[in-house]
Design goal:
Chain B: Keywords: FAD, Flavoprotein. Chain B: This is FAD linked oxidase domain protein. The complex is a heterodimer of chains A (246) and B (437). Chain A is α/β, with parallel strands linked by helices and 246 residues long. Helices cover 49% and strands 15% of the residues of chain A. A seven-stranded parallel beta sheet of chain A has the order 3-2-1-4-5-6-7, with helices on both faces. In chain A, α1 runs parallel beside α2, α1 packs across α7 and α5 packs parallel to α6. The longest helix of chain A is centred in the middle third of the chain and has 29 residues. The relative contact order of chain A is 0.12. Chain B has a domain of 221 residues: Alpha-Beta Plaits (2-Layer Sandwich), CATH 3.30.70.2520. Helices cover 23% and strands 26% of the residues of chain B. In chain B, β1 and β2 form a beta hairpin. The longest helix of chain B has 16 residues. The two termini of chain B are 26 Å apart. The chains are: A alpha/beta (246), B alpha+beta (437).
Chain lengths: 246, 437
């Protein structure tokens, strides 16, 4: 059984992943801000087969609590071999453009808190010479676009950080998995008009679990986003800047 | 809450537009809006009882968490958006089954309660509502009522079968039944007419938990009312054969411009289906899924009726009137040439339904579906309404998209009593239609 810490456990993608892990009998430590929701999810996961589920209510932006969080999780599960980082906010681009404070807050939530936590996780896993780090980044981090470049900047930082971390931890036998979902139909994106490009969180979750089992490095989900993003990244900046629809 | 969408019910008629509000957190309050609200589960109601044209649909599929399950007593509590299929997937391997299941497992728990659905064991177990231990009802004034056969009993009776109008069912607790395995020992008996159906049914109801009949309603004259009677019990623990769960599902990818169901295909299908078994009786051990949910293996089967959709018609006719009225209905349908692809006949038992607006009542029930061919179809169904009304029966709101306000009030004379319990901020296309609001 895996011993999994899930940060941002009330997010739709994290919950869908947790259900798949529960059905394998894994041990889960759920972290999120909403205590009632965490408890509801924990009870559900126990019924679905998780061998152990414990929760901790924490705003992951309070970086000073990260070390204690890892200790709590390891103590509760009797060790720790997998960390899934799934928290995030969908920055409202227009509002960010009018507020440095909001921009910094979004960068803190979506990038700095992840980097801070992973710094501790990386050292812990490196010393135990085993572990899997799974982080939900985004296709938005592959190239800055006017519609969401604050969010994209944060995700680009996370993706770059993970790339370096993967190389560093490879020698120690620690795996780092970057997940790049496209549009996912979740409460975070409820105000967007949906089209056939949108994926269900269950689909994304099964891609994530399969990637964890296969030891993948970077996964686009659904898979068609890999060629799509390759094309988008290949467009010269001289042309890209005038493509207002992207 | 800006998501607007053309939401369809299972019959793909009528077409309405409403704003969607997706529920994920059972502790959340109802949305602040001036428009009327209506809970929407998995959209398996056929007509407009799950639609709210110009209003708001409270999508409950995100409320899909189990809350508590006692594998010793078989008491299951879960959020209202959990599908019956999801409950079965969890409890069948642990030796439990639903006390009552409708003909599709793709309905939500909340929807099963709000329509007080019934199944092939109605003569034994009554309706779904009879096995609901309690639920929480969220009202638009913010109150959360815990309703059960002993607490807030009037709200319980109003909400079971209450078409989602009394508030939002947030979670519910149901009693499950023990099974030894996932198999059903079944028999299929060919019958040549209605008399034989009633005789076989009377003969079976004591010994068989599940009974239902398929009717060939494309046939007329001497063959009128012929069909196949299916009966079964949960298989014994030492079951000789152990069929596997069906794997792989087909899906109808799109709705063709016109219905694939027409008088020619209907006649052909019905004749072939009736003659598919050569002997009068066949026996088999079946997995529960194909036994209870034969149509679930063809996803989106409702699309075969084409863009105009189809109309379901299910009526119940009490007691002694049942035989003659059923014959009259079948004759009218055969005469119209608009026979139904799937016609289902079953005897309802005497256990009274707990909901004030519940549809099942002791007697015979007939369910049919018709491609929507415009006014001719509506005229036929209105003429069937007249037969049902004369016989003192009722038409099932969960399957209806067209009954008149007058007929509804005849079929459900208790409606004024029920109306007092409707949440002031809740409404539906169905309710506005039958109340002529």
């Amino acid at each position: 059984m895996r011993k999994v810490l899930i940060v941002g456990a009330t997010s739709a993608i994290a919950e869908a992943v947790a259900r798949l892990l529960a059905a394998r009998g894994d041990f889960l430590y759920l972290v999120g801000r909403r205590a009632e929701m965490l408890e509801a999810i924990a009870a559900d996961l126990r019924i679905r087969g998780a061998a152990r589920v414990q929760t901790e209510t924490l705003d992951i932006n309070t970086i000073e609590h990260h070390a204690a969080l890892l200790d709590h999780a390891a103590a509760a599960l009797g060790g720790l071999d997998t960390v899934l980082v799934a928290h995030g906010t969908l920055s409202e681009q227009a509002a960010c453009q009018q507020s440095v404070a909001l921009t910094f807050q979004e960068l803190h939530t979506n990038a700095l808190s992840v980097i801070a936590l992973l710094t501790l996780v990386a050292n812990r896993f490196e010393s135990q010479r085993a572990g899997t780090i799974v982080v939900i980044s985004s296709v938005a981090g592959d190239r800055g676009r006017q519609s969401n470049y604050v969010y994209g900047t944060a995700k680009a930082a996370v993706s770059s950080f993970l790339s370096g971390l993967r190389q560093r931890l490879h020698q120690a036998g620690v795996r780092v998995l970057t997940i790049k979902p496209g549009f996912v139909d979740t409460p975070m994106t409820r105000d967007f008009a949906k089209n056939p490009l949108w994926a269900k969180p269950e689909r994304v979750a099964s891609d994530i679990v399969r990637a964890m089992e296969k030891g993948k490095d970077v996964v686009y989900t659904p898979g068609f986003w890999r060629p799509v993003m390759w094309i988008i990244k290949s467009i010269p900046e001289r042309i890209f800047k005038s493509l207002s629809f992207l | 809450m800006t998501e607007r969408a053309a939401t369809l019910s299972w019959g793909r008629y009528p077409r309405t537009r409403q704003t969607l509000f997706r529920y994920h957190d059972r502790h959340a309050t109802l949305p602040a809006t001036e428009y009327p609200l209506l809970p929407y589960g998995n959209g398996r109601s056929y007509g407009d009882s799950c639609l709210n044209d110009g209003g708001v649909l409270l999508h409950t599929r995100g409320l899909d968490r189990f809350i508590a399950f006692d594998a010793v007593t078989g008491v299951m509590r879960c959020e209202a958006g959990v599908l019956l299929a999801e409950i079965l997937a969890l409890v069948v391997p642990q030796g439990w089954f639903l006390m009552v299941t409708p003909g599709t497992q793709f309905v939500t728990l909340g929807g099963a309660i709000a329509n007080d659905v019934h199944g092939k064991n109605h003569h034994r177990a009554g309706t779904f509502g009879a096995h609901v231990r309690c639920f929480e009802l969220l009202r638009s004034d913010g109150s959360r009522l815990r309703c059960s056969p002993t607490e807030n009993t009037d709200w319980f009776a109003a909400t079971v079968g209450g078409l989602g109008l009394t508030g939002l069912i947030v979670w519910a607790e149901i009693q499950l039944r023990r099974i030894a395995n996932p198999w059903i020992a079944s028999e299929t008996i060919r019958f040549g007419g209605l008399d034989e159906f009633f005789a076989v049914s009377a003969d079976s109801d004591d010994d068989y938990e599940y009974t239902v009949a398929w009717l060939d309603c494309a046939s007329r004259g001497a063959a009128l009312g012929r069909g196949l009677f299916m009966r079964g019990n949960h298989a014994p623990a030492l079951c000789a054969t152990q069929p596997r769960a069906p794997t792989g599902r087909l899906s109808v990818p799109f709705a063709p411009p016109c219905s694939l169901i027409n008088s020619w295909s209907l006649k052909t299908f019905n004749t072939l289906y009736y003659h598919r078994q050569r002997t009068r009786i066949t026996r088999a051990i079946a997995h529960y899924a194909p036994f209870f949910y034969p149509l679930d293996s063809l996803l989106a089967w409702n699309r075969i009726y084409g863009r105009h959709g189809f109309l379901q018609y299910q009526c119940a006719i009490p007691g002694a009137q049942g035989h003659a009225a059923t014959r009259e209905l079948l004759e009218r349908i055969a005469h119209s040439g608009m026979g139904s692809f799937l016609a289902v006949l079953k005897i309802f038992g005497a256990i009274p339904a707990v909901g004030w607006l519940s549809f099942p009542r002791p007697g015979v029930t007939l369910a049919l579906d018709f491609p929507n061919q415009g006014p001719a179809t509506f005229r036929l169904l209105e003429s069937l309404d007249a037969v049902v009304a004369t016989a003192g029966g009722a038409v099932y709101p969960a399957k209806d998209a067209r009954m008149s306000a007058l007929r509804f009030r005849e079929f459900f004379p208790q409606w004024p009593h029920f109306r007092a319990y409707i949440d002031p901020r809740f409404s539906s296309s169905f309710w506005r239609r039958v109340m002529e609001e």
